[in-house]
Amino acid sequence: QKEVEQNSGPLSVPEGAIASLNCTYSDRVSQSFFWYRQYSGKSPELIMSIYSNGDKEDGRFTAQLNKASQYVSLLIRDSQPSDSATYLCAVNVGGYNKLIFGAGTRLAVHP
Amino acid sequence: GAGVSQSPSNKVTEKGKDVELRCDPISGHTALYWYRQSLGQGLEFLIYFQGNSAPDKSGLPSDRFSAERTGGSVSTLTIQRTQQEDSAVYLCASSLARESYEQYFGPGTRLTVT
Asked: CB of B43 within 8 A of CB of A101?
């Protein structure tokens, strides 16, 4: 089993809809969870971090964490074509600073 | 403020040559990481530096790979006797390790081994 799993996609949503991206992880002691956005040919850009169970909102983005289920998600409201990118889920491993990244979910927002 | 910088942005080298990739982290960030991303693939952890502690080298794929960090700031990743499978984008990230694990990435170096 991979340590961090994501659906590769592509996830296709119409402009204005809610995009829901999901991630599961295997290390029960993980404490820090991150979502990165990566445009084609660019480096990953941090968009959300979450450390506690529940929801964390930042603008159009909401991160959701459920440690009991070892599940973290990212919701993007009012999706825009500019949101089209690959979204990487990252989880810290064993209480250390090292992050393990999922393979990413490709999101396509069509007008 | 200035972000993480990397040089060169692109490097083309012949198989068997050595290459050096440079990373300059965000000022004040004590932790520095190297990752590799092959075409269409996820990020592969290579090595992690934290302050003056011994680096975590657990991700280095072979002994042809090495890295150092001088003065707790700039880092150099060296690949000796490059092979075609080394072709990838090499990404550097830095973080304020003791306060958060949030890592910020540089633009990467695209390495092509011919």
From this structure: yes
Residue B4 contacts residue B90 (beta carbons within 8 Å): no
Selecting from B41, B48, B107 the residue whose C-beta is nearest the C-beta of A43 gives: B107
Confidence of residue B44 (pLDDT cuts 50, 70, 90): very high
**Is B4's pLDDT higher than 60?**
yes
Average pLDDT over residues B6-26: 98
Calculate the average pLDDT of chain B: 92
Q: How many CB pairs under 8 A join A and B?
A: 53
How far apart CA A100 and CA A32 sit, in angstroms, is 11
CA B21: distance to chain centroid?
7
Q: Do B42 and A88 lie within an 8 Å CB cutoff?
A: yes
